[in-house]
Design a protein that fits this description.
- This protein is of the alpha+beta class and 112 residues long.
- It has helices at residues 31-45, 79-87, 89-101; strands spanning 14-22, 25-26, 29-30, 52-58, 70-76, 102-111.
- The chain has a single domain, classed as Alpha-Beta Plaits (2-Layer Sandwich).
- Helices cover 33% and strands 33% of the residues.
- The chain is elongated, with a radius of gyration of 18 Å.
């Protein structure tokens, strides 16, 4: 008599990548100043939202028309953790700032 194979559910972590192109001047600041302000606000979320496992913000090493101005990499335990992050009031404050200073946003979330 054979034994039934037990298949345990597989849980995937989620990588969340966002790229922004910023306006030349907005909110009284230059593009570069807004990029650094966005970085500061995003990095502050790590201490405010426990669902964030990893978070990095970077700027391009070269400029160009097809190059984004700010990149965000973050890692979450699962889809539910990402959803909690996205709805969190502190994250929503950053979203409002981004709406003021960004002209384009690209995002991809994928499982690892």
């Amino acid at each position: 008599m054979g034994h039934a194979k037990v298949i345990s559910p597989r849980f995937f972590m989620i990588k969340h990548i966002v790229l922004w192109k910023l306006k030349e001047d907005e909110a009284g600041w230059s593009k570069q100043e807004n990029a650094f302000e966005l970085k500061r606000r995003l990095e502050a979320l790590k201490n405010k939202i426990p669902e964030i496992l990893e978070l990095e913000i970077g700027f391009p090493i070269e400029k160009g028309e097809t190059v984004s101005d700010v990149a965000l990499y973050s890692l979450f335990k699962d889809k539910e953790s990402l959803a909690i992050y996205q709805k969190h009031p502190e994250h929503q404050k950053v979203v409002e700032f981004v709406k003021q200073v960004a002209v384009e946003r690209r995002v991809v979330d994928y499982e690892i």
